[in-house]
Request: fold
Amino acid sequence: MSIDSIDTTNQHTDAPTTLDLDRVEAFAGQVAGDIGTVFAGATVYIGHHAGLYTAMADGGALTPEEVADRAGAHPRYVREWLGAQAAGGYVEYEPASGAYRLPPEHAAVLADPMSPAYLAGASDGMAAIWAAAERVATDFTLGEGVPWHEHDPRLFSGTEELFRPSYQTFLTSEWIPSLEGVEDRLTAGARVADVGCGHGVSTVVMAGSFAASHFHGYDAHDASISTARRRAADAGVGDRTSFEVALATKLPDLGFDLVCFFDSLHDMGDPVGALVSAREALTSDGTVMLIEPFAGDGVEDNLTPVGRLYYAASTLVCTANGIAQGNRPVLGAQAGEAALRDVLAQAGFTRVRRSAETPFNLVLEARP
Ligand SMILES: C[S@@+](CC[C@H](N)C(=O)[O-])C[C@H]1O[C@@H](n2cnc3c(N)ncnc32)[C@H](O)[C@@H]1O
Reply:
């Protein structure tokens, strides 16, 4: 079936407008596909939480009943779920045997929490974003923000899981070595601040590699600070970490050798104030490491799948939090290096360089 005609008028001139119907159909197909992707996001969440991807992690060809049996799930649900996974290309379907298979490359993304490519845990974030949609829609009219702590708690675990693989893969092997002289200082024994530390993944990763240093995590969200303390104790680094509830604009002046912001500065309502506070809390030869979502300087540079993810998350979470905190200015998750350099300069940092990058992250080194 195809669309024969659509009558419309140009809203500005009232002139009849002829639509390119092929383009309409192609775009409707794209949006239908996107709606399918959004619906299927809930099946990723279920696959993660009901242990279905884990049940398929060995790559074997399995019937729905076998997957259900392994996961302890209801077979009729699993059959329908597998249809959604196969239609999305997440699993392979063999019509002859009626079996489904999770290829090992997909298992690395969906079923192995220690893989650098792991993304299934981030599905909590998808759920939290949807939970916020109604409130944010109202806030578009009111111009009000949504403070981080008022989100569905799955935002906090989803954020932890979205960023954890990158931090575990790159932080101590590439990002810290990319900074001038910092790795040696941390090896010898240094004092480090992790500002907006959330659940403390980055703090714990650093503490695991530099036993002579002390790592101070700060976050405005008290529940995240409690979780971070537990994560550090579980990882056996409780003795070289401490976590306190604190605003980024009011860091204690402990003479830090390194102050880090991991994907947090762009959420803050006063990024310049936070950077001034970081500069004042540094030793005279200290360094700020600013990790931010990867972005180019122009909107046109960020019209990519990664940019889409970040712009969407930023609309509902990062920008909403920044507006709630004062809006002076809100960077958002696709600020780009030029805007980051601008706030660093306003805060008194004179030496700034991009020291590393990944498809998801920019790493800037800043010194007073
Ligand atoms: C996107 S999360 C990143 C968390 C963590 N750094 C990570 O990478 O997993 C942003 C964090 O910044 C914290 N935050 C936002 N505004 C803050 C502020 N003004 N002062 C301190 N923390 C803040 C939030 O509570 C949240 O935990």
Summary: Residues 53 and 111 are 5 Å apart (CA to CA). The chain has a mean pLDDT of 96. The first strand starts at residue 8 and ends at 9. Residues 21-49 form the longest helix (29 residues).
